[in-house]
Fold this protein.
Amino acid sequence: MNPSRRKFLQQSLFAAGSLAFAAHAARAAAGPGPHPGAHDEAYWEKVRAQFPLTSKRVFLNNGTIGVSPYKVIDSVYEDMLDCDTFGWHGGGEQEALSALASFLGTKEEEISLTHNVTEGINIVCWGLPLAAGDEVIITNHEHVGHAGPWLNRRKLSGVSLVVVDLGKTAEETLHNISKAISAKTRLISVPHIPCTIGQVLPVKEICSLARQRGIWTCLDGAHPPGMLRIDLHDIGCDFYAGCCHKWMLGPKGTGFLYVAEDKRNVLQAYYGGAGVDTGWDLTTNPFLFKGYAESGHRYFYGTQNSSLYQGIARAVAFQEEIGRQAIEERVKALSGYLQDQLIRLHPDMDMLTPQEQISRAAQVSFRVKGRDMQKFQARCQEKEIIIRYVPENNIHCIRVSTHIYNTYAELDYFLSEVEQFVFS
Protein backbone atom coordinates (compact mmCIF):
# COMPACT_ATOMS: atom_id res chain seq x y z
CA MET A 1 0.00 0.00 0.00
CA ASN A 2 1.52 3.37 -0.96
CA PRO A 3 1.81 6.13 1.72
CA SER A 4 -0.86 8.44 0.25
CA ARG A 5 -3.34 5.62 -0.02
CA ARG A 6 -2.63 4.50 3.54
CA LYS A 7 -3.07 8.06 4.83
CA PHE A 8 -6.41 8.33 3.04
CA LEU A 9 -7.46 4.97 4.44
CA GLN A 10 -6.58 5.96 8.00
CA GLN A 11 -8.62 9.16 7.64
CA SER A 12 -11.53 7.12 6.32
CA LEU A 13 -11.34 4.77 9.28
CA PHE A 14 -11.76 7.59 11.75
CA ALA A 15 -14.40 9.29 9.64
CA ALA A 16 -16.36 6.05 9.64
CA GLY A 17 -16.26 5.94 13.40
CA SER A 18 -14.01 2.87 13.67
CA LEU A 19 -12.76 3.92 17.09
CA ALA A 20 -12.92 0.46 18.61
CA PHE A 21 -10.70 -0.93 15.90
CA ALA A 22 -8.26 1.95 16.27
CA ALA A 23 -8.11 1.29 20.02
CA HIS A 24 -7.22 -2.33 19.35
CA ALA A 25 -4.49 -1.26 16.94
CA ALA A 26 -3.08 1.24 19.45
CA ARG A 27 -3.06 -1.37 22.21
CA ALA A 28 -0.86 -3.67 20.15
CA ALA A 29 1.15 -0.98 18.36
CA ALA A 30 4.29 -1.32 20.45
CA GLY A 31 4.23 -5.12 20.38
CA PRO A 32 5.62 -7.37 23.11
CA GLY A 33 9.26 -6.84 22.14
CA PRO A 34 11.98 -9.50 22.37
CA HIS A 35 11.79 -12.05 25.15
CA PRO A 36 13.79 -10.89 28.21
CA GLY A 37 13.95 -14.13 30.20
CA ALA A 38 12.61 -17.67 30.44
CA HIS A 39 10.49 -17.07 33.55
CA ASP A 40 9.48 -13.43 33.25
CA GLU A 41 5.72 -13.73 33.85
CA ALA A 42 5.26 -9.97 33.50
CA TYR A 43 6.54 -10.25 29.95
CA TRP A 44 4.11 -13.06 29.09
CA GLU A 45 1.28 -11.00 30.52
CA LYS A 46 2.27 -8.31 28.06
CA VAL A 47 2.19 -10.91 25.30
CA ARG A 48 -1.30 -11.97 26.37
CA ALA A 49 -2.42 -8.33 26.01
CA GLN A 50 -1.56 -8.55 22.31
CA PHE A 51 -4.57 -10.87 21.79
CA PRO A 52 -8.31 -10.10 21.86
CA LEU A 53 -8.91 -13.35 23.77
CA THR A 54 -11.40 -12.73 26.58
CA SER A 55 -10.21 -13.11 30.17
CA LYS A 56 -13.52 -14.82 30.95
CA ARG A 57 -12.41 -17.92 29.07
CA VAL A 58 -9.48 -20.31 29.60
CA PHE A 59 -8.61 -21.28 26.05
CA LEU A 60 -6.54 -24.48 25.99
CA ASN A 61 -7.43 -25.70 22.51
CA ASN A 62 -4.90 -24.01 20.27
CA GLY A 63 -4.39 -27.38 18.57
CA THR A 64 -7.78 -26.91 16.92
CA ILE A 65 -7.55 -23.23 16.06
CA GLY A 66 -5.16 -20.50 17.11
CA VAL A 67 -6.08 -17.03 18.33
CA SER A 68 -4.57 -14.28 16.17
CA PRO A 69 -2.93 -11.24 17.77
CA TYR A 70 -4.17 -7.73 17.02
CA LYS A 71 -1.31 -7.13 14.61
CA VAL A 72 -2.52 -9.93 12.36
CA ILE A 73 -6.16 -8.91 12.62
CA ASP A 74 -5.32 -5.27 11.93
CA SER A 75 -3.26 -6.19 8.90
CA VAL A 76 -6.04 -8.25 7.34
CA TYR A 77 -8.65 -5.60 8.10
CA GLU A 78 -6.61 -2.74 6.68
CA ASP A 79 -5.75 -4.60 3.51
CA MET A 80 -9.35 -5.69 2.93
CA LEU A 81 -10.60 -2.15 3.48
CA ASP A 82 -7.93 -0.79 1.16
CA CYS A 83 -8.94 -3.31 -1.51
CA ASP A 84 -12.63 -2.43 -1.28
CA THR A 85 -12.02 1.30 -0.96
CA PHE A 86 -9.94 1.56 -4.12
CA GLY A 87 -11.24 -1.43 -6.06
CA TRP A 88 -7.89 -3.12 -6.58
CA HIS A 89 -6.85 -6.73 -6.45
CA GLY A 90 -3.59 -8.53 -5.89
CA GLY A 91 -0.45 -8.25 -3.80
CA GLY A 92 0.56 -9.91 -0.58
CA GLU A 93 1.36 -13.24 -2.18
CA GLN A 94 5.07 -12.65 -2.54
CA GLU A 95 5.36 -11.26 0.98
CA ALA A 96 3.70 -14.38 2.38
CA LEU A 97 5.88 -16.73 0.33
CA SER A 98 9.02 -14.94 1.42
CA ALA A 99 7.99 -14.95 5.09
CA LEU A 100 7.06 -18.63 5.03
CA ALA A 101 10.24 -19.69 3.25
CA SER A 102 12.36 -17.89 5.84
CA PHE A 103 10.25 -19.28 8.69
CA LEU A 104 10.48 -22.88 7.41
CA GLY A 105 14.04 -22.94 6.10
CA THR A 106 13.14 -23.44 2.43
CA LYS A 107 13.34 -21.68 -0.93
CA GLU A 108 10.39 -19.49 -1.89
CA GLU A 109 9.89 -21.60 -5.02
CA GLU A 110 9.24 -24.66 -2.82
CA ILE A 111 6.21 -23.14 -1.07
CA SER A 112 2.61 -23.20 -2.32
CA LEU A 113 -0.15 -21.28 -0.56
CA THR A 114 -3.15 -23.38 0.49
CA HIS A 115 -6.22 -22.99 2.68
CA ASN A 116 -5.33 -25.71 5.20
CA VAL A 117 -3.35 -28.90 5.82
CA THR A 118 -6.06 -31.07 4.27
CA GLU A 119 -5.73 -29.29 0.93
CA GLY A 120 -1.98 -29.82 0.94
CA ILE A 121 -2.33 -33.51 1.78
CA ASN A 122 -4.82 -33.95 -1.06
CA ILE A 123 -2.43 -32.32 -3.55
CA VAL A 124 0.26 -34.82 -2.55
CA CYS A 125 -2.12 -37.77 -2.33
CA TRP A 126 -3.48 -37.36 -5.85
CA GLY A 127 -0.36 -35.94 -7.47
CA LEU A 128 2.00 -38.83 -6.75
CA PRO A 129 2.25 -41.57 -9.40
CA LEU A 130 0.93 -44.45 -7.31
CA ALA A 131 -0.58 -47.62 -8.73
CA ALA A 132 -2.85 -50.31 -7.33
CA GLY A 133 -0.94 -52.36 -4.80
CA ASP A 134 1.60 -49.66 -3.97
CA GLU A 135 1.93 -49.30 -0.20
CA VAL A 136 1.59 -46.09 1.80
CA ILE A 137 2.62 -46.20 5.48
CA ILE A 138 0.49 -44.12 7.86
CA THR A 139 -0.09 -44.33 11.64
CA ASN A 140 -2.88 -45.26 14.03
CA HIS A 141 -3.08 -41.63 15.20
CA GLU A 142 -4.27 -39.81 12.09
CA HIS A 143 -6.54 -36.79 11.80
CA VAL A 144 -9.34 -37.08 9.26
CA GLY A 145 -7.58 -34.46 7.13
CA HIS A 146 -4.69 -36.87 6.67
CA ALA A 147 -6.50 -40.21 6.76
CA GLY A 148 -9.43 -39.12 4.55
CA PRO A 149 -7.43 -38.41 1.38
CA TRP A 150 -5.55 -41.70 1.61
CA LEU A 151 -8.68 -43.72 2.31
CA ASN A 152 -10.25 -42.07 -0.73
CA ARG A 153 -7.25 -42.90 -2.93
CA ARG A 154 -7.34 -46.47 -1.61
CA LYS A 155 -10.99 -46.71 -2.63
CA LEU A 156 -10.52 -45.19 -6.09
CA SER A 157 -6.98 -46.25 -7.04
CA GLY A 158 -6.38 -49.41 -5.05
CA VAL A 159 -3.31 -48.26 -3.15
CA SER A 160 -2.62 -50.25 0.00
CA LEU A 161 -2.49 -48.54 3.40
CA VAL A 162 -0.18 -49.95 6.05
CA VAL A 163 -1.09 -48.66 9.53
CA VAL A 164 1.77 -48.47 12.04
CA ASP A 165 1.40 -48.12 15.81
CA LEU A 166 3.20 -45.20 17.45
CA GLY A 167 5.73 -46.28 20.03
CA LYS A 168 6.10 -44.89 23.52
CA THR A 169 9.50 -43.50 22.56
CA ALA A 170 11.00 -42.00 19.41
CA GLU A 171 13.22 -45.05 18.99
CA GLU A 172 10.28 -47.43 19.22
CA THR A 173 8.27 -45.42 16.69
CA LEU A 174 11.18 -45.42 14.24
CA HIS A 175 11.56 -49.17 14.74
CA ASN A 176 7.85 -49.77 14.05
CA ILE A 177 8.01 -47.80 10.81
CA SER A 178 11.19 -49.54 9.71
CA LYS A 179 9.57 -52.95 10.27
CA ALA A 180 6.53 -51.94 8.19
CA ILE A 181 8.59 -51.13 5.09
CA SER A 182 8.36 -53.68 2.30
CA ALA A 183 9.37 -53.94 -1.35
CA LYS A 184 5.99 -52.37 -2.21
CA THR A 185 6.38 -49.29 0.01
CA ARG A 186 6.36 -46.10 -2.07
CA LEU A 187 5.52 -43.45 0.53
CA ILE A 188 5.68 -42.85 4.28
CA SER A 189 3.03 -40.26 5.16
CA VAL A 190 2.83 -39.52 8.88
CA PRO A 191 2.07 -36.61 11.21
CA HIS A 192 4.99 -34.58 12.53
CA ILE A 193 2.89 -34.25 15.69
CA PRO A 194 -0.40 -36.21 15.72
CA CYS A 195 -3.58 -34.37 16.66
CA THR A 196 -4.38 -37.02 19.26
CA ILE A 197 -1.64 -37.13 21.90
CA GLY A 198 0.84 -34.42 20.92
CA GLN A 199 3.74 -36.83 20.48
CA VAL A 200 6.66 -35.42 18.48
CA LEU A 201 7.70 -38.05 15.95
CA PRO A 202 11.37 -38.53 15.00
CA VAL A 203 10.70 -37.11 11.55
CA LYS A 204 14.31 -36.40 10.57
CA GLU A 205 15.24 -40.02 11.24
CA ILE A 206 12.11 -41.28 9.45
CA CYS A 207 12.94 -39.20 6.37
CA SER A 208 16.56 -40.38 6.38
CA LEU A 209 15.41 -43.99 6.58
CA ALA A 210 12.99 -43.49 3.69
CA ARG A 211 15.53 -41.69 1.53
CA GLN A 212 18.03 -44.54 1.94
CA ARG A 213 15.41 -46.93 0.57
CA GLY A 214 14.14 -44.73 -2.27
CA ILE A 215 10.79 -44.01 -0.55
CA TRP A 216 9.00 -40.64 -0.63
CA THR A 217 8.03 -38.87 2.60
CA CYS A 218 5.09 -36.61 3.37
CA LEU A 219 4.53 -34.99 6.77
CA ASP A 220 1.24 -33.72 8.16
CA GLY A 221 2.52 -30.52 9.75
CA ALA A 222 -0.68 -29.13 11.26
CA HIS A 223 0.87 -28.44 14.65
CA PRO A 224 4.65 -27.83 14.71
CA PRO A 225 4.97 -24.53 12.73
CA GLY A 226 4.80 -21.77 15.33
CA MET A 227 5.29 -24.24 18.18
CA LEU A 228 8.71 -25.66 17.34
CA ARG A 229 11.60 -24.24 15.38
CA ILE A 230 11.48 -25.94 11.99
CA ASP A 231 13.97 -26.30 9.16
CA LEU A 232 12.40 -28.44 6.44
CA HIS A 233 15.65 -28.80 4.51
CA ASP A 234 17.26 -30.16 7.66
CA ILE A 235 14.35 -32.54 8.27
CA GLY A 236 14.76 -33.81 4.72
CA CYS A 237 11.14 -34.56 3.84
CA ASP A 238 9.83 -34.46 0.27
CA PHE A 239 6.46 -32.90 1.11
CA TYR A 240 5.16 -31.01 4.15
CA ALA A 241 1.59 -29.75 4.52
CA GLY A 242 1.09 -27.13 7.21
CA CYS A 243 -1.34 -24.44 8.29
CA CYS A 244 -0.93 -20.87 9.47
CA HIS A 245 -4.06 -20.72 11.66
CA LYS A 246 -3.00 -22.89 14.58
CA TRP A 247 0.34 -22.32 16.30
CA MET A 248 1.48 -19.70 13.78
CA LEU A 249 -1.48 -17.54 14.93
CA GLY A 250 -2.26 -16.42 11.38
CA PRO A 251 -5.58 -15.78 9.62
CA LYS A 252 -8.09 -18.62 9.56
CA GLY A 253 -8.17 -20.61 6.35
CA THR A 254 -4.50 -20.18 5.48
CA GLY A 255 -1.88 -22.86 4.97
CA PHE A 256 1.07 -23.97 2.90
CA LEU A 257 2.49 -26.95 1.07
CA TYR A 258 6.22 -27.55 0.81
CA VAL A 259 7.35 -29.54 -2.23
CA ALA A 260 11.09 -30.18 -2.34
CA GLU A 261 12.58 -28.71 -5.49
CA ASP A 262 13.74 -32.09 -6.82
CA LYS A 263 10.25 -33.55 -6.37
CA ARG A 264 8.37 -30.82 -8.27
CA ASN A 265 8.36 -32.81 -11.49
CA VAL A 266 7.32 -35.95 -9.60
CA LEU A 267 4.20 -34.41 -8.05
CA GLN A 268 1.69 -33.87 -10.85
CA ALA A 269 -0.50 -30.76 -10.79
CA TYR A 270 -4.11 -31.64 -11.62
CA TYR A 271 -5.79 -28.26 -11.41
CA GLY A 272 -5.09 -25.49 -13.91
CA GLY A 273 -5.51 -21.75 -13.75
CA ALA A 274 -3.67 -18.46 -13.51
CA GLY A 275 -0.16 -19.00 -12.22
CA VAL A 276 0.06 -22.76 -12.79
CA ASP A 277 1.54 -22.61 -16.31
CA THR A 278 4.27 -20.75 -18.17
CA GLY A 279 2.05 -19.82 -21.11
CA TRP A 280 -0.93 -20.99 -23.18
CA ASP A 281 -2.77 -20.12 -26.39
CA LEU A 282 -6.00 -21.53 -27.80
CA THR A 283 -5.64 -19.71 -31.13
CA THR A 284 -2.77 -21.89 -32.33
CA ASN A 285 -2.90 -25.28 -34.03
CA PRO A 286 -2.18 -27.33 -32.08
CA PHE A 287 -3.16 -25.50 -28.87
CA LEU A 288 -0.20 -24.18 -26.90
CA PHE A 289 0.62 -25.20 -23.34
CA LYS A 290 4.22 -24.28 -22.64
CA GLY A 291 4.52 -26.14 -19.34
CA TYR A 292 4.13 -25.84 -15.60
CA ALA A 293 5.48 -23.05 -13.41
CA GLU A 294 8.88 -23.85 -11.92
CA SER A 295 7.71 -22.79 -8.48
CA GLY A 296 5.11 -23.61 -5.87
CA HIS A 297 2.60 -21.71 -8.02
CA ARG A 298 2.24 -24.95 -9.93
CA TYR A 299 -0.18 -26.07 -7.20
CA PHE A 300 -2.21 -22.91 -6.47
CA TYR A 301 -3.98 -20.68 -8.92
CA GLY A 302 -6.61 -18.09 -9.71
CA THR A 303 -7.95 -15.26 -7.56
CA GLN A 304 -6.43 -15.26 -4.08
CA ASN A 305 -7.18 -13.33 -0.89
CA SER A 306 -4.21 -10.98 -0.66
CA SER A 307 -5.40 -9.69 2.71
CA LEU A 308 -4.96 -13.10 4.28
CA TYR A 309 -1.49 -13.29 2.80
CA GLN A 310 -0.66 -9.98 4.48
CA GLY A 311 -1.85 -11.60 7.70
CA ILE A 312 0.48 -14.57 7.22
CA ALA A 313 3.46 -12.24 6.87
CA ARG A 314 2.40 -10.30 10.00
CA ALA A 315 2.00 -13.55 11.96
CA VAL A 316 5.55 -14.57 11.07
CA ALA A 317 6.83 -11.11 12.02
CA PHE A 318 5.00 -11.31 15.37
CA GLN A 319 6.66 -14.62 16.21
CA GLU A 320 10.06 -13.38 15.10
CA GLU A 321 9.67 -10.31 17.33
CA ILE A 322 9.23 -12.51 20.39
CA GLY A 323 11.79 -15.06 19.23
CA ARG A 324 11.12 -18.57 18.01
CA GLN A 325 13.32 -20.17 20.64
CA ALA A 326 11.55 -18.22 23.38
CA ILE A 327 8.14 -19.38 22.09
CA GLU A 328 9.25 -23.01 21.99
CA GLU A 329 10.67 -22.81 25.50
CA ARG A 330 7.54 -21.14 26.86
CA VAL A 331 5.00 -23.57 25.42
CA LYS A 332 7.10 -26.56 26.45
CA ALA A 333 7.44 -25.18 29.98
CA LEU A 334 3.67 -24.75 30.31
CA SER A 335 2.81 -28.20 28.96
CA GLY A 336 5.62 -29.81 30.96
CA TYR A 337 4.23 -28.29 34.14
CA LEU A 338 0.73 -29.49 33.28
CA GLN A 339 1.90 -33.01 32.47
CA ASP A 340 3.88 -33.34 35.70
CA GLN A 341 0.98 -32.08 37.83
CA LEU A 342 -1.51 -34.44 36.16
CA ILE A 343 0.74 -37.45 36.76
CA ARG A 344 1.04 -36.53 40.46
CA LEU A 345 -2.68 -36.03 40.82
CA HIS A 346 -3.95 -39.59 40.76
CA PRO A 347 -2.56 -43.14 40.33
CA ASP A 348 -5.26 -43.90 37.76
CA MET A 349 -4.12 -41.09 35.48
CA ASP A 350 -3.45 -42.58 32.05
CA MET A 351 -0.87 -40.22 30.53
CA LEU A 352 -0.81 -40.75 26.77
CA THR A 353 1.70 -38.05 25.83
CA PRO A 354 5.26 -39.38 26.22
CA GLN A 355 7.37 -37.95 29.04
CA GLU A 356 10.50 -38.42 26.93
CA GLN A 357 11.83 -34.91 26.30
CA ILE A 358 12.36 -35.31 22.54
CA SER A 359 8.84 -36.68 22.12
CA ARG A 360 6.80 -33.98 23.86
CA ALA A 361 6.11 -30.36 23.06
CA ALA A 362 3.02 -28.22 23.71
CA GLN A 363 0.14 -30.67 23.93
CA VAL A 364 -0.81 -33.05 26.71
CA SER A 365 -3.32 -35.87 26.32
CA PHE A 366 -4.63 -38.01 29.15
CA ARG A 367 -7.47 -40.20 30.42
CA VAL A 368 -8.69 -41.09 33.88
CA LYS A 369 -9.44 -44.79 34.19
CA GLY A 370 -13.11 -45.53 34.65
CA ARG A 371 -14.21 -41.98 33.80
CA ASP A 372 -16.10 -40.61 30.81
CA MET A 373 -13.74 -38.03 29.37
CA GLN A 374 -16.36 -36.62 27.02
CA LYS A 375 -18.45 -35.69 30.05
CA PHE A 376 -15.40 -34.02 31.54
CA GLN A 377 -14.95 -31.97 28.37
CA ALA A 378 -18.60 -30.88 28.58
CA ARG A 379 -18.14 -29.96 32.25
CA CYS A 380 -15.12 -27.83 31.38
CA GLN A 381 -17.07 -26.14 28.59
CA GLU A 382 -19.66 -25.04 31.14
CA LYS A 383 -16.84 -23.52 33.21
CA GLU A 384 -15.48 -21.66 30.13
CA ILE A 385 -12.45 -23.96 29.93
CA ILE A 386 -11.95 -24.90 26.28
CA ILE A 387 -10.19 -28.22 25.68
CA ARG A 388 -10.56 -30.96 23.08
CA TYR A 389 -12.08 -34.39 23.50
CA VAL A 390 -10.29 -36.85 21.18
CA PRO A 391 -12.52 -39.66 19.85
CA GLU A 392 -10.26 -40.40 16.85
CA ASN A 393 -9.04 -43.98 16.55
CA ASN A 394 -11.03 -44.86 19.72
CA ILE A 395 -8.54 -43.02 21.93
CA HIS A 396 -11.23 -41.16 23.93
CA CYS A 397 -8.93 -38.82 25.79
CA ILE A 398 -8.63 -35.14 26.66
CA ARG A 399 -6.08 -33.00 24.82
CA VAL A 400 -4.81 -29.73 26.29
CA SER A 401 -2.85 -27.34 24.06
CA THR A 402 -0.76 -24.54 25.55
CA HIS A 403 0.46 -21.46 23.71
CA ILE A 404 2.09 -18.14 24.53
CA TYR A 405 -1.17 -16.49 25.62
CA ASN A 406 -1.71 -19.08 28.36
CA THR A 407 -0.61 -18.73 31.99
CA TYR A 408 0.26 -21.01 34.89
CA ALA A 409 -2.78 -19.63 36.73
CA GLU A 410 -5.02 -20.90 33.94
CA LEU A 411 -3.41 -24.32 34.14
CA ASP A 412 -3.91 -24.41 37.91
CA TYR A 413 -7.59 -23.56 37.41
CA PHE A 414 -7.89 -26.40 34.92
CA LEU A 415 -6.07 -28.78 37.28
CA SER A 416 -8.53 -27.94 40.05
CA GLU A 417 -11.36 -29.04 37.74
CA VAL A 418 -9.54 -32.28 36.95
CA GLU A 419 -9.07 -32.91 40.66
CA GLN A 420 -12.76 -32.35 41.39
CA PHE A 421 -13.74 -34.63 38.50
CA VAL A 422 -11.42 -37.42 39.63
CA PHE A 423 -12.41 -37.36 43.28
CA SER A 424 -16.10 -36.47 42.98
Remarks:
- The domain at 93-319 is CATH 3.40.640.10 (Aspartate Aminotransferase; domain 2).
- DSSP finds 14 helices and 15 strands in the chain.
- Confidence is low (pLDDT under 50) at residues 1-23.
- Residues 324-345 form the longest helix (22 residues).
